[in-house]
């Protein structure tokens, strides 16, 4: 019996968007209008690249960014949930699939000592250049028309499961915990025995219920959560079974 927990990061593990939180480092804690309005749908990574150039041009250094990012609050109950998963790692494999970036997620998890809870993190690769500017790249190229061009979470999940099968690891159940529109694609990939856990009041929950209304519901079970304690209760009931 082994369960796979798949977490989104922004608005799921942390209660904010890590990419917009970094704006606290900008002069007057805001971006110029021209930069803010330069975002084009599906091209968030490119937009963040421009934000990082702006921060670098304004002398914002790595240590200041790190200090700011490690003040981002965790979602209600999440610290308890991650502690519980950490204590039961023999039952749970745990991965993050996120449209954030490696630097932010690494800083935040290490500062709270949760990096050991997660077996793998799939997100956009980021690094500081020799001139001290943060740079970010696309996670991968894919052919999914529903997802932003830098990341299809279904593709990531499918490739991870295929790799695990090659290692002889299969899962009793996949539990997908997320909130955003880009979490719908992997949720549609889940099977009858799996469970999607959308955050209450967020886009993923709305999209799943729209599908149910149009009589093309997702195959998996759906359990809505508002605090990570709801997720922990479900996991405890799994262990008892």
TrEMBL record:
Residue positions of the active site: 8, 10
Pfam families the record matches: Put_Phosphatase (PF06888)
UniProt: substrate binding residues: 19, 99
Cofactor (UniProt): Mg(2+)
GO molecular function, one term: metal ion binding
Record flagged with keyword Metal-binding: yes
Keyword terms of this UniProt record: Hydrolase, Magnesium, Metal-binding
Listed SUPFAM superfamilies: HAD-like
Binding site for Mg(2+): 8, 10, 179
This protein's record includes keyword Secreted: no
Tree of life domain: Eukaryota
Cross-referenced InterPro entries: HAD-like_sf, HAD_hydro_PyrdxlP_Pase-like, HAD_sf, Pase_PHOSPHO-typ
Family statement drawn from the similarity comment of this UniProt entry: Belongs to the HAD-like hydrolase superfamily. PHOSPHO family.
Protein's name according to its UniProt entry: PHOP2 phosphatase
Species of the source: Melospiza melodia
Organism phylogeny: Eukaryota, Metazoa, Chordata, Craniata, Vertebrata
Gene label: Phospho2
């Amino acid at each position: 019996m082994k369960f796979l927990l798949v977490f989104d990061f922004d608005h799921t593990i942390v209660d904010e968007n890590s990419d917009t939180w970094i704006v606290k480092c900008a002069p007057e804690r805001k971006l110029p209008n021209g930069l803010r309005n330069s975002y084009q749908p599906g091209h968030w990574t490119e937009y963040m690249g421009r934000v990082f150039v702006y921060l670098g041009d304004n002398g914002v250094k790595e240590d200041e960014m790190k200090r700011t990012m490690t003040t981002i609050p965790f979602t209600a109950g999440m610290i308890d949930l991650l502690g519980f998963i950490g204590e039961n790692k023999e039952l749970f494999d745990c991965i993050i699939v996120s449209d954030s970036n490696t630097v932010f997620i690494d800083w935040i998890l290490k500062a709270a000592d949760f990096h050991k809870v997660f077996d793998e993190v799939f997100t956009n690769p980021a690094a500081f250049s020799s001139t001290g500017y943060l740079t970010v790249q696309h996670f991968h190229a894919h052919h999914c028309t529903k997802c932003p061009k830098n990341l299809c979470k279904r593709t990531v999940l499918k490739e991870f499961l295929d790799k695990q099968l090659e290692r002889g690891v299969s899962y009793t159940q996949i539990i997908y915990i997320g909130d955003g529109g880009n979490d719908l694609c992997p949720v549609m990939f889940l099977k009858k025995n799996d469970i999607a856990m959308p955050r209450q009041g967020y886009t993923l929950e709305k999209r799943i219920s729209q599908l149910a209304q149009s009589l093309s519901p997702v195959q998996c079970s759906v359990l809505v959560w508002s605090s990570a304690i709801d997720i922990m209760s479900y996991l405890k009931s799994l262990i008892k079974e």
